[in-house]
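If you are new to this repository, start here. Below is one unmodified record pulled from the training split, so you can see the exact layout before writing a loader.
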Amino acid sequence: MLEIDDLCAGYGGVPVLHGISLRVGAGECVAVVGPNGAGKTTLFKALSGVVAATGTVTFDGGSLLDVPPARRAHQGIAHVPEGRQVFPSLTVRENLEMGAWTDAGRRQWKDNLERIHAWFPVLAERAKTLAGALSGGQQQMLAIARGLASAPKLLLLDEPSMGLSPAVADEIFERIVAIHAQGGLAMLLVEQRVAEALHFATRGYVLEAGRVVLSGTHDSLRSDDRIRRAYLGM
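And here is the target side for that same chain:
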């Protein structure tokens, strides 16, 4: 579904990504892990078109980099950014409606809304509440749900546990696992909770200083001594 080859990107002429290559198959969940500053968020911004990039990115059979950024959501890519970034002055329902502005989201709004409320019942209960009045965990649920409202083929999840207590982060991961299991939605997950990310994902990539330094199945990465020492505290 997503094939990235030799992707380079940066800011103001300063390179951050140096020839990244990775893939995500249909219905697959792939994790990208690594330290702060490794380029994980820049990777997502390049896929969304927020930062300029060179290289080859094929999505659903076509060249993604040739698609204007404003059209990439219509192609089936939903980006759930780090820090949630909900619209605080809009209600929960209005935030979901903002997510459903894509062609597929409008066509599938009713069915999508039912699924979202099944996965996140609190969003149905608080549909008329301003998003800014929600707890951090509820805002993260809303951010994920807003992405799902677009009826994506690929969901980009950037640090979904950021700023949350361990218990709330665990709950968020449980919902993500359920969504993937029930819907078969392809996911690319950036996460600093390496143990959880590699346990959940089919495969993973380790990004350091803008380069992929390791890749493999979750079992092979979890058993790699470098990963165990650097990220798993073992």
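Two things worth knowing about this chain: The mean pLDDT is 92. DSSP finds eleven helices and ten strands in the chain.
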